[in-house]
Amino acid sequence: MSLTLRYMRLGDIRQVATIDVMCFDPPWSYDSYVFEINESTVSHMVVLEEIIGRAPPEPVRRRSWLDRLRGRGSGSASALDGTGSILGYGGLWKIDDEAHVSTIAIDPSLRGKGYGEILLAGMFGKALQLRARYIVLEVRVSNAVAQSLYRKYGFSRVGRRKNYYRSDNEDAWDMRVSLDRDTRHRFERLYEKLRLQHGFLDTYSRGSHPRG
């Protein structure tokens, strides 16, 4: 068994939508995912996939973060044996200098295993690769667990959005992090620790968009 971070594909939508329905009200439509994957010029959708089969070779797991981000080294998800299941997913929009986390979710039965942090770290690395100057996201004011994770990566509250969530009119915190030198260094340390803990393969944050 191994974990892989990679760009979302059309074939993933069924599994992604199942998680979406469990996590959000209202969930995204099927056509929304198709648009994000196939048509949007600013969207970078990601999935965390569990591969049942041969794990990636040790050299792949232990490449430095900078080498991975620059695309050096070998190994890809397609080289793995077995089949996979989607554990969680996320979306990142890159517009001008801003990277915006549009969505992030983990199968509710798998929470507490660190998978959400892997997704966040993948999108953080993608924002760096895309040369964003800052990252923004919204989070429920009641979601203390998510807020704690975001603060770990340097996010801080900059505003409160009233009645942001349509299902129950709960407010959202607007949280942001500037991608300055100190933030980059902190992220590199956190990312390497996360890699050592979970041994995941990341073809998302270091790779190019499948559409080119």
Largest sheet: 8 strands, mixed
> In what range is the share of β-strand residues?
25-35%
Give the N-to-C terminal Cα separation: 30 Å
CATH architecture descriptor text: 3-Layer(aba) Sandwich
Any idea what the radius of gyration is? 16 Å
| Total separate domains | 1
Order of strands across the main sheet: 6-7-5-4-3-2-1-8
Average pLDDT figure: 89
Compressed to H and E, one letter per element, the order equals: EHHEHHEEHEHEEHE
Structural class: alpha+beta
Superfamily at the CATH H level?
A: Gcn5-related N-acetyltransferase (GNAT)
What is the subunit organization of this protein? single chain
Level of helix content?
A: 25-40%
Provide keyphrases for this structure.
212 residues; alpha+beta; Aminopeptidase; 8-stranded mixed β-sheet; 7 helices; 8 strands
How is the topology of this model organized?
Elements: E1 2-7, H1 13-23, H2 30-38, E2 43-52, H3 58-61, H4 65-70, E3 83-95, E4 98-106, H5 115-129, E5 134-140, H6 144-152, E6 156-161, E7 172-178, H7 181-198, E8 201-202
Parallel strand pairs: 1-8, 4-5
Antiparallel strand pairs: 1-2, 2-3, 3-4, 5-7, 6-7
Helix pairs in contact: 5-7
What can you tell me about this protein's structure?
By secondary structure, the protein is α+β, with helices and mostly antiparallel strands. Helix content is 34%, strand content 28%. It has one domain: Gcn5-related N-acetyltransferase (GNAT) (Aminopeptidase, 3-Layer(aba) Sandwich). The protein has seven helices and eight strands; from the N terminus they run βααβααββαβαββαβ. The chain has an eight-stranded mixed beta sheet with strand order 6-7-5-4-3-2-1-8, sandwiched between helices.
